[in-house]
Amino acid sequence: MSESLNIAVIPGDGIGPEVIAEAVKVLKKATEQSDAPLVLTDYKLGAEHWLETGETLPEETLEALKTHDAILFGAVGAAPGDTRIPSGLIEREMLLKLRFSLDHFVNLRPAKLYPGVPSPLAAPGDVDFIVVREGTEGPYVGNGGALRVGTPHEIATEVSVNTAYGVERVVRDAFRRANERDRKHVTLVHKHNVLVYAGHLWRRTVEAVAAEFPNVTHDYLHVDAATIFMTTNPSRFDVIVTDNLFGDILTDQAGAITGGIGLAASGNINMDRTAPSMFEPVHGSAPDIAGQQKADPTAAILSVALLLDHVGLPKAARRVEEAVESDIASRDEMTDPRTTAEIGDAIVAALA
Amino acid sequence: MSESLNIAVIPGDGIGPEVIAEAVKVLKKATEQSDAPLVLTDYKLGAEHWLETGETLPEETLEALKTHDAILFGAVGAAPGDTRIPSGLIEREMLLKLRFSLDHFVNLRPAKLYPGVPSPLAAPGDVDFIVVREGTEGPYVGNGGALRVGTPHEIATEVSVNTAYGVERVVRDAFRRANERDRKHVTLVHKHNVLVYAGHLWRRTVEAVAAEFPNVTHDYLHVDAATIFMTTNPSRFDVIVTDNLFGDILTDQAGAITGGIGLAASGNINMDRTAPSMFEPVHGSAPDIAGQQKADPTAAILSVALLLDHVGLPKAARRVEEAVESDIASRDEMTDPRTTAEIGDAIVAALA
Ligand SMILES: CC(C)[C@H](C(=O)O)[C@@H](O)C(=O)O
Ligand SMILES: CC(C)[C@H](C(=O)O)[C@@H](O)C(=O)O
């Protein structure tokens, strides 16, 4: 870490700027007493920026982002009906490009049902697990193609690429995290009865890494079965490790059962620290409620806690989490009339 | 259809034979008054059969199966701990081989929350949708490979193959089914912002086919968002059309929210009728409770209703569904002490 704490801020589109404004308030408050002064630099990226400039992620911006200690990210993406923007362009050319260029191989997504938060499950139990989603391989590599497009003979392929190098480092990260937790249990989620080659690489890797962690137990679930347990018995999970696409699906489901993705934080983490990690709410840009102060900034604020952990300020991270937890406990979700800013302010006040 | 109704029966492994015994009772009762006499032929296939003979699906058996009007299938698969059987072998070389060889391009999976069935969701609403899962393409084609296996340089790939021919026929089937339903709404589920080539083929196909069905509305959800709605608002769905893998995941989740896969039926349907279709419960062989008369045969029995529909006996199909519905309404799920056979007998009695 440099002598100051240099954070790049990418508010993005839709509700991104609103929730990031609150996350920044919390970040400032939480680092107020820290030795390293906080330096924030804003970067304008996203669908709006593309409409104005035609740029997704220019090389200079990518290089500039690399000079920071971490990146705080809001959300990107145009309104679904906006035909000016090729669908998925911003997501791929900016968001995924950042994850891949900065080697964010651990996509960390905690799922915790905070006391006081209503779950859509009738009997959720004590839900407190983390998903360690692989972030740089799998079906996300952009290795697809198409022939005879637009004809009755069209064929389109998508290739999931999995390497021993890529799988091992994320599996090891999952076991390390499990080793620090109470239950010390890793569940591999895949579909190895169908995706044989990738599935067996994942399974063999889990067996090999498990041997290094005698205190950590592990089991295996097919992804279809995992969605069932996520519904009927989510408290069975401690640490889930899975590939990029299964992780995408399971973490949205995990967000839903723990009270909504308005509360779900994530970190795109480069554990080798060869480039800055990026912290972002799991939710998207939600253009339908943008600019109305209706968005819940909690997921963005919990992402700040993950950021603080990563940059070596675990105490500040815990304080943010506790402030969020106490704010949540005082909410009546059904009737919480607070604006985005009021929720942010309340969490800042709880921090003080 | 031949002059008799020729049904092949594959009980399979684990709880397969128990639930199929009840399904057969119901099939007999429901076709009692039909003009075409019912002829049942048993085929022994599955993990146990493989252990005895080393055969997964011999060519002669496949040819013999093709002579039937439909196939009633239980479940296959060894106990997870049974190391004598290469993992996934039976699933791929028998179950998936049947789906592919018999061109079961429509994998139909209704999801209905029957009155009286407790859902794990706190407020499920009125859940009654069908998933039309593609059955012969996508990541299920077995088009994977691996290099330098077991070394730190291993690379494993899985290719999802999607064709205009394959996508169009299943999308058209989904719109046809939607057109027959009250709400007449199709939701395409995919992940086209990441899986660009396959995703765009699916989207373009939906737009093209939608133009043929002016009474049917349609929308699109990314698979991650679909798992959220499945949790928070499943009554929004009417007909979901999706690829083989997303369909696998979503239908297990759909089974869970509608009271468990013990109730979830499915049809592997060749709508061109160039080969027999196959009907099976969504659940697996559940070796842990096999042979104990603990399995719920309802999913297998509802699969009989789908079979009857397909072989041109829709009235018999409705009668089976109504018998199941009335049996379910009389259950207390928490304390239902009935054996597999008792549930089957009760449904037969309700049919009478
Ligand atoms: C926007 C999209 C590309 C992204 C993903 O699929 O990873 C999002 O769903 C997420 O989970 O962060
Ligand atoms: C057993 C397995 C190969 C199968 C599948 O993945 O299709 C099962 O999960 C199903 O949904 O019927």
Automatic annotation (TrEMBL), chains A, B:
Its main location: cytoplasm. Pathway: Amino-acid biosynthesis; L-leucine biosynthesis; L-leucine from 3-methyl-2-oxobutanoate: step 3/4. Coiled coil: none annotated. Its cofactor is Mg(2+); Mn(2+). Its EC number is 1.1.1.85. It is found in: Cytoplasm. GO terms for molecular function: 3-isopropylmalate dehydrogenase activity. Mg(2+) binds at D224, D248, D252. NAD(+) binds at G284, S285, A286, P287, D288, I289, A290, G291, Q292, Q293, K294, A295, D296. SMART domains: Iso_dh. Homodimer. HAMAP family: LeuB_type2. Catalyzes the oxidation of 3-carboxy-2-hydroxy-4-methylpentanoate (3-isopropylmalate) to 3-carboxy-4-methyl-2-oxopentanoate. The product decarboxylates to 4-methyl-2 oxopentanoate. This is 3-isopropylmalate dehydrogenase. It comes from Paeniglutamicibacter kerguelensis. The lineage of its organism: Bacteria, Bacillati, Actinomycetota, Actinomycetes, Micrococcales.
